[in-house]
From TrEMBL, chain A:
This is Uncharacterized protein. The lineage of its organism: Bacteria, Pseudomonadati, Bacteroidota, Flavobacteriia, Flavobacteriales.
UniProtKB/TrEMBL annotation, chain B:
Residues 27-96 form the RNA polymerase sigma-70 region domain. The keyword DNA-binding applies. Pfam families: Sigma70_r2 (PF04542), Sigma70_r4_2 (PF08281). This is Sigma-70 family RNA polymerase sigma factor. NCBIfam families: sigma70-ECF.
Length: 48, 196
């Protein structure tokens, strides 16, 4: 009879790639991001 | 579509910096699988991978838009480096706040909460394993048992063991080898799983 102290079976998952929502979010983030440079300073704003 | 497949990363980055948002979409689509798989291979968790993938490209976008990206024709290695650094940050954070996961679907709060009893339990398991290993060692032939004890418990070098037992180093090594083989045989025979 097996003498078990610890048993853990890792779940096998094949990565399918990022969700479409994540890619959409990134594209929207890029569109909304506005970068302004004033003298030595850089300002970032998100325009939703 | 044909243009998307043939345009280099460098050109797409330049187009993006000129305000062509669709170039970013092409860059993400082109490299998403590779970057996602890279992150997943390190963290082995889909949700965490998704978060790190998102953070990677947020950093990419911000760096590009701030004009801090030096194009050297190495867009993908640069993105991979950002992803790699974010994976390291993730593990650093997790080291401070360890996450426990269970193979069972049932969530048990005691899997997550760490207390003094848990370490005591681990100590007990460790002690039990050590006792069982000692019992298995007792079953070995005397010459093999002697070498194994000297090596594993007294931390002696094979040269010292050879001198102490009045045999050559090769003989001492051979006895150690057979001791380990025999231990494995006994473990397999009795279906014993020694895990701590």
């Amino acid at each position: 009879m097996a003498k078990l102290y610890n048993e853990s079976i890792p779940e096998r998952v094949t990565p399918l790639g990022p969700k479409d929502d994540t890619v959409k979010f990134l594209l929207n983030f890029s569109k909304a991001l506005s970068v302004m440079k004033i003298k030595n300073m850089t300002f970032e704003t998100l325009n939703n | 579509m044909k243009l998307e497949n043939t345009t280099t990363d460098a050109v797409l980055v330049t187009q993006y910096l000129k305000g062509e948002e669709s170039s970013l979409e092409v860059l993400i689509t082109r490299h998403k699988q590779r970057i996602y798989s890279f992150i997943y291979s390190k963290v082995l968790d889909r949700d965490v991978t998704e978060d790190i993938f998102q953070d990677t490209f947020i950093k990419v976008i911000r760096t590009l838009r701030r004009g801090k990206y030096n194009e050297e024709g190495k867009f993908l290695p640069w993105v991979m480096r950002i992803a790699h650094n974010l994976v390291i940050d993730h593990f650093r954070r997790n080291k401070r706040m360890p996450k426990f996961s269970s193979s069972n679907s049932d969530f048990d709060i005691f899997d997550v909460i760490s207390n003094g009893q848990e370490s005591t339990e681990n100590e007990m398991i460790s002690l039990q394993v050590q006792q069982d290993v000692k019992k298995l060692i007792e079953e070995l032939p005397d010459d093999q048992k002697e070498v194994l004890i000297m090596r594993m418990y007294k931390d002696m070098s094979f040269k010292e063991i050879a001198e102490s037992t009045d045999v050559s180093i090769n003989t001492a090594l051979g006895r150690m080898r057979y001791a380990l083989i025999n231990l494995r045989k006994v473990i397999d025979k009795h279906n014993i799983i020694l895990t701590n």
